[in-house]
Design goal:
mainly alpha; DNA polymerase, domain 1; hpI Integrase, Chain A; 2 domains; three-stranded antiparallel sheet; 45% helix
Length: 301
């Protein structure tokens, strides 16, 4: 009998009706999509809101990748479906560490819970081996000229987010969620949480002086009277990962600006986004004219 056809669905309904009449209980036999929706609901409160948003994006991408299989019974999911998604992540430019942790921490975890509840007999991720990182690329630092190109080709709030990343060294995902309560234009400082910094305590609170270029941009914005209002409202709710996430959007801006993707690369985990290094690591206190005229920076030497 072919899985997922009308006959099977009718048989399942009849069996459920019989079980309900005999025991008074209804069997739970979810589709792949239904299971992941339920699993995400059970994760609420157990993980941070930001992590839940990223998990939802990963699940959304996985379900889209496996197509019609997402509507079949959960027990029909196979290792081949997981490998198909892994290949999509690889061809999409994801770093090996990102791919491995996406499979291990999200998909494998969700299927383990399903096994624990007796919904499936085996974990389809169990035999998926980690891929090797054969050519790790270290993070680079954008030059002032490259930042000028990026800002020129960016639109809307992306212009400010790029400047904020360059002058604070923060991750896109952390800075996109900035609120006006994080910005002190009197003291000229920005305070935010860096959730994933290599070699440092996770979720470290940092306070960064506002560079004059970034200050000029912020002053040009309509400052909200509500401290909880986002500094970058167009990007505030965007996930970090996924096709519609910040990482891929930034890579598209890089492509428009003619900047090779190898200049900078994500590291740190399945949910890590592009990390912009501070200009001060290259130019010290160099005078950089990027906003609003978007002209080249003065010589840093």
């Amino acid at each position: 009998m072919k899985h997922g056809n009308a006959t099977e669905e009718q048989i399942r309904r009849v069996m459920n009706d019989v079980l309900t009449r005999v025991t008074g209980k209804t069997s739970y036999d979810p589709s792949v999509r239904q299971w992941f929706e339920r699993w995400l609901e059970t994760e609420k409160g157990a993980i941070s809101e930001g992590t839940l948003v990223r998990y939802k994006q990963i699940v959304k991408d996985f379900l889209a990748c496996i197509g019609s299989v997402a509507n079949l019974r959960l027990e029909n999911i196979t290792t081949e479906d997981v490998l198909k998604y892994r290949e999509q992540l690889e061809t999409g430019g994801r770093a090996p560490l990102t791919v491995n942790l996406t499979i291990k921490r999200v998909l494998k975890r969700a299927f383990k819970v399903a096994m624990d509840e007796g919904l499936i007999s085996r974990n389809p991720c169990a035999t998926v081996r980690p891929i090797r990182d054969t050519g790790k690329v270290e993070k680079g630092t954008f030059s002032p000229q490259q930042i000028s190109q990026l800002v020129e080709h960016a639109e809307g709030d992306w212009k400010g987010l790029i400047l904020a990343g360059y002058f604070t060294g923060g991750r896109l995902s952390d800075l996109a969620r900035l609120k006006w309560s994080n910005v002190d234009l009197t003291e000229k400082s920005i305070t935010f949480i860096q959730r994933k910094i290599e070699g440092k305590t996770p979720k470290a609170r940092v306070k960064i002086p506002i560079h004059p270029v970034l200050e000029e941009y912020l002053l040009s914005r309509p400052i909200r009277t509500f401290p909880s209002a986002p500094v970058f409202p167009e990007l505030h709710d965007k996930p970090g990962a996924g096709k519609s996430g910040l990482s891929m959007a930034f890579k598209r801006i890089m492509d428009k600006a003619g900047i090779a993707a190898g200049v900078i690369r994500e590291r740190g985990g399945p949910l890590a986004e592009v990390y912009l290094r501070s200009a001060f690591t290259v130019c010290g206190t160099a005078s950089i004219q990027l906003w609003p005229r978007l002209v080249s920076a003065k010589n840093c030497g």
